[in-house]
Amino acid sequence: MCPLARAFARSFALLLLAFSCEVAWGQTTVPSKPDASGSPYKVLRSVSGAAGHENNGRYVMDDARSVFVAGKDPKVIVYFEWQGPIGPHHFEGLWKSPEGKIVLISDFRYEAKAQQFNGYWSMVLSDATPSGEWQLEARIDGEFAGTHTFVITGSAAAGAPPSTPQPLGAADLYRKAMDATVTIEKLAADGVVLGKGNGFWVGDARVLTAFDVIDGAASLRVSLKDGSQLTTDQVLAWNRWQDWALLKLDGGAKTWLKRGASDTPNVGDHCVFLEAGPVGAKLADGSITGKSSFPKAGERLIIASGVTSVSFGGPLLDEYGNYVGILGGSIVPGGDPIKTLSLLNDAGATDRTTDWTTTGLAVPHTQLPDLAAAASTTRLAELAKRGEFLLPVVKSKSVQFVTLAGQVAREPSKMLTPRDFKQVFSRRDVKAYVYVNWDNSSKGKLNCVLRLFDADNKLISETETRQVTLAPGKYIATSWDLSIANSRTGIFRLDLILDGVTVWREFFRITE
Questions:
Q1: Which domains does the chain have, with CATH numbers?
Q2: What is the value of pTM for the model shown?
């Protein structure tokens, strides 16, 4: 988006009032469809407030509202977004008093370089500003281009805001997200924590989250905002490939989020989300920067900030505080969404070539069914029995590191060395290799098995059990080779099993 270009209008007052006017303009590069009415100028939205800031070519209202107190609020800001023809235009802002009289006109000229452009006017208030219902009428090239209504009063209780929903400020969005978001820990049968993510209330005793957050759990421990905890193993509805799950909790919520408008979120929409961090959750920019669609997973929203795994399952909120997506958006069940996206989009890509800080995925709310219709529950143990879950990965102290490679060479010293590290293989490569470097401070005998799965969690093959003997101070490395010359193309998964426990997992892709 282009930065806002500031211009001060030539203003003249038709009545002597103590206020002034300021105008700022910007534009975006996202085209829209023309107005069906035939008008060359279409109002996309308008909003008023007393404070705001410019951000990437748009004006973000920090305290969006429509009632202002003369003598207390310093000014009224009215922001418009339009769609219209590219080129030079003459803009006018007509401030109308409660009597319907035009008391101030601001005009200027500005050249729009994109079909969607925006701007705001600011009017200073004083004790002498008349109370009542005001209007700002916008005109472009002499044609009507929208009206925004607001109330000025000497008492905060006087007047009522219009029924039209108003965007929330950053503070209100943060509070709303914090009130509705919960932390979810997935627990093994022995109570060990296998992973952590988020979820959010969408109704009484109902929490929505990403399927990845519950995958492999024997039970779930849910921490609420007040510090209390609930435990559940009941799921009302889910979709493994679309990456969402609706949980049932034996407890209610004081605050839950409403679903956004029925239409799909659009590229350019301003959204936010909670990003968990070491010192607490912060509000992050979740503006929608793109979309992608995948055969089994469906549509994914690409958002402007990276999302860490501990924030998966949290809500993506629109500017009204409604949820329009679920953070995470795994494209292949169990696979990291950004790594998988790299594998699909670029045959030579790995996670090292992806900008994690500016790329995140979310499942759009339009993929969800009617959640209110879900009534019967299914236990997590039943999902595991059906093959819906992946076995949890438990790190082993005996393993130093594991990697995929195009080659494994034996050096003159007889040490195995991996070469050509990659996660995308062509069938012309003939073979792929898994290299394991064992910890030389460990001691014991381990039984090792390498298993190959497809993206549907179906076992394709597994190696014969190999025994590895570890001794302190002894260097040990092992490798397996996988024949891929006659394999079908697609994304696959490898699991390394030690004494019946999965200790390493990696997804990779085979191309022609």
A1: 5-162 (2.60.40.1930), 168-391 (2.40.10.120), 399-511 (2.60.40.1930)
A2: 0.68
